[in-house]
């Protein structure tokens, strides 16, 4: 077998060679099944989005500048998560923690904006109970928000692990999985932005 | 040398060779600050592009592009952004050895295509009860639909079933 490259040496440090890539492949399979979950929700939304039951439709409810800000915040969070992985591979603890904190803060900002949009809709009588369109909307966007919430809890846990254990094989591997998860959620959001919001106001 | 050739022979086959345990995963730190920055800038440009395609049409009053072209443009921009982020953030397809990650991705695309395409196809065919078919004057009383001249909205559910069965040409 060939000698591992520098990058492989880093990522395999402290664990059985090859086990990391198997774990990451397993996580990749999970992400692909998650795509199928989102696909069913997108299909449901596409079928129901005109069924407003006499209530407000998508062109009356959404504020595009607000959603654009959300999108740019999540995109920046995903980018900074990538910068964090570069710091992790260079074993720069301080920089990795700074980028991880920035990722979490931007993620919280995104989640806060999403929740404020949800509460605004609900307070105006446009909750998920109002129509098939709104049920599908809250289910699709809410499922994404739930993933974001889970990711934020995960990221905070990893921050604690970096501080307490440093970059052991396990912590580095989990950071790689988290970064995959975070980039994946950004891609799902691009499609929510396009299909729900941009097409919604047309 | 010999060993490499030997393992190469198994690439892409269903035989599990030891070589497959050293597959490079996606997101394994192959990116550089430069590649992440390129991906970030492209993503922002594509997002803003899609945003302005939609908003400029709304502000203008008389759209320069037809509805179909706008939809087409923003869908293309979203797909390009998907490819950009897969390439620069997730580093898909840059792994060495057998490409199981890419294979899984292709399989996912197939399933998504069947689920979404199949749903839209069938539901658009069965649009008897879609809100589109409600009268355009905003009243709640349904009228006979243009596409289905024999459909009477006042029918009971079982009569509606019979109508659909008849209309779809299903023989029992």
Characterization of this structure:
The complex is a heterodimer of chains A (202) and B (172). Chain A has helices at 6-12, 19-48, 58-61, 64-89, 93-123, 132-165, 169-201. Chain A is mainly alpha-helical. In chain A, helix 5 runs antiparallel to helix 6. The longest helix of chain A has 34 residues, at 132-165. The N and C termini of chain A lie far apart (57 Å). In chain A, 41% of the residues are buried. Chain B is mostly helical and 172 residues long. Chain B has helices spanning 2-8, 33-60, 67-90, 100-125, 157-167. In chain B, helix 2 runs antiparallel to helix 3. Chain B is flat. The chains are: A mainly alpha (202), B mainly alpha (172). At the A-B interface, helix 1, helix 2, helix 4 and helix 7 of A face helix 2, helix 3 and helix 4 of B.
Task: Count up the helices of chain B.
Answer: 5
The average pLDDT value of chain A, as a whole number, equals 90
Cα-atom radius of gyration of chain B: 26 Å
**Count of DSSP H/I helices of chain A:** 7
Oligomer: heterodimer
Structural class of chain A: mainly alpha
The percent of residues in helical segments of chain A reads over 70%
Our estimate of the beta-strand percent of chain B is under 5%
Helical residue percent band of chain B: 55-70%
Descriptors for this entry?
heterodimer; A: 202 residues; mainly alpha; B: 172 residues; flat
Question: Quick summary of this structure?
Answer:
The complex is a heterodimer of chains A (202) and B (172). Chain A is mainly α.
Spell out the blueprint of helices and strands.
The complex is a heterodimer of chains A (202) and B (172).
Chain A lengths: L5 H7 L6 H30 L9 H4 L2 H26 L3 H31 L8 H34 L3 H33 L1
Chain B lengths: L1 H7 L24 H28 L6 H24 L9 H26 L31 H11 L5
Helix pairs in contact in B: 2-3
